[in-house]
Every structure is written in structure tokens, then in C-alpha cells.
């Protein structure tokens, strides 16, 4: 479906993409790697040192944040997140968004709670001012109502009434 947008919609074809000539990227991304790999947080400044011939694409996840979020980037979790997070430790909404990201063969996703260091005022202030760019340069934005329940809901057909009731 996204490939159809790129091929046929003028606005979609004109969307800014990160290329070797214009390497705008968020400070951090989650690299999904190959199927079966553990997702891991990467510093994008280190990525730009490697040659890249194709546009780099990443999706973004927009979700409602809750207190007590079980998985987030802090100075204490930074090393763990950069080494990889087992799938069973990833909240369902994040895992769903990561699976959606893989469908059009996109390897990276930006999730604010995994890409902005919580408790680090300087990191938060710098990256908050760049959020419009994060979303503007993203390939696709995935939206969810919270961080836990997943991106998809199961419809309850027993609660659907025919027209006229």
C-alpha cells in the first residue's frame, strides 16, 4: 500500500527522505535488523560514518504515554537497549509497530521513549525541539492509543447493532 502511495501520489513522492547527500536523522533510532534479531537502539551519528547508497527509511510511533512505562531509555538502560532487547520484554504496542515497520521492508523505527533519554534534561530539550523534523522525515507514522494494548484491537461484533436501532 505504501509503495502505491510513492508511485502514484505527487505529495508522497515529494516527501523528504534521508539520503547520503542530506543525512538528517533523529539522534537515535531502533534498528530492527534482520528477522529474528533483537531490536536495538543506535546512535545515528555513528551510522553516518558508514557509506550508504540508498535512502534510509524509518517509521515513527505516536502513542499515549503512561506513567510507570516498563521499557524506556535512561542512562541506566542505555547500554542494554544498544545491545538488544528480547522481544518478550517489548510492550505489545511497540512490538506491533515494529512488525508493521518490517512489512514495507523498513529497518528502523523511532519511538520517543526508546530514543530520547528520560531524566536527562539536555537530551530531552535538544530532541523535543527536533520532533517536527523526526515526524517530517519519517517514512510512515504509526499511531496507537497507548503503550501496552497493541496497535490493533479485536472488534466485538456482538456490540454492533444494525442500522435503525
Notable characteristics:
165 residues, disordered C terminus, alpha/beta, five-stranded mixed beta sheet
In short:
The protein is 31% helix and 13% strand. By secondary structure, it is an alpha/beta fold.
> Roughly what is the average pLDDT, rounded to an integer?
78
The total count of helices amounts to 8
Overall strand count: 5
Task: Kindly estimate the percentage of residues that lie in beta strands according to DSSP.
Answer: 5-15%
Distance between the termini: 36 Å
Share of residues in helices: 25-40%
Largest sheet: 5 strands, mixed
Helix-strand category: alpha/beta
Shape field: globular
Low-confidence residue ranges: 155-165
Rg estimate, integer Å? 17 Å
Count of individual domains: 1
Strands side by side in the biggest sheet: 2-1-4-3-5
Q: Give the topology string: H per helix, E per strand.
A: HHEEHEHHEHHHE
Write the layout of secondary structure elements.
Blueprint: H1 2-8, H2 10-13, E1 28-31, E2 40-43, H3 44-47, E3 58-62, H4 78-83, H5 92-102, E4 108-111, H6 112-115, H7 121-128, H8 131-137, E5 140-143
Parallel strand pairs: 3-4, 3-5
Antiparallel strand pairs: 1-2, 1-4
Pfam families: HET (PF06985)
Protein name: Heterokaryon incompatibility domain-containing protein
InterPro entries: HET (IPR010730)
Amino acid at each position: 500500500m505504501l509503495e502505491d502511495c510513492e508511485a502514484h501520489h505527487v505529495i508522497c513522492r515529494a516527501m523528504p527522505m534521508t539520503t547520503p547527500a542530506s543525512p538528517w536523522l533523529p539522534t537515535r533510532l531502533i534498528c530492527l535488523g534482520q528477522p529474528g534479531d533483537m531490536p536495538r537502539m543506535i546512535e545515528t551519528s555513528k551510522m553516518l560514518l558508514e557509506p550508504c547508497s540508498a535512502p534510509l527509511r524509518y517509521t515513527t510511533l505516536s502513542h499515549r504515554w503512561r506513567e510507570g512505562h516498563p521499557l524506556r531509555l535512561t542512562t541506566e538502560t542505555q547500554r542494554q537497549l544498544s545491545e538488544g532487547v528480547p522481544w518478550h520484554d517489548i510492550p505489545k504496542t511497540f512490538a506491533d509497530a515494529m512488525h508493521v515497520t518490517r512489512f514495507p521492508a523498513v529497518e528502523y523505527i523511532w519511538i520517543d521513549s526508546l530514543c530520547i533519554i528520560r531524566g536527562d534534561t539536555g537530551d530531552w530539550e535538544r530532541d523535543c525541539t527536533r520532533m517536527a523534523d523526526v515526524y517530517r522525515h519519517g517514512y510512515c507514522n504509526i499511531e496507537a492509543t497507548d503503550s501496552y494494548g497493541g496497535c490493533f484491537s479485536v472488534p466485538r461484533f456482538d456490540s454492533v447493532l444494525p442500522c435503525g436501532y
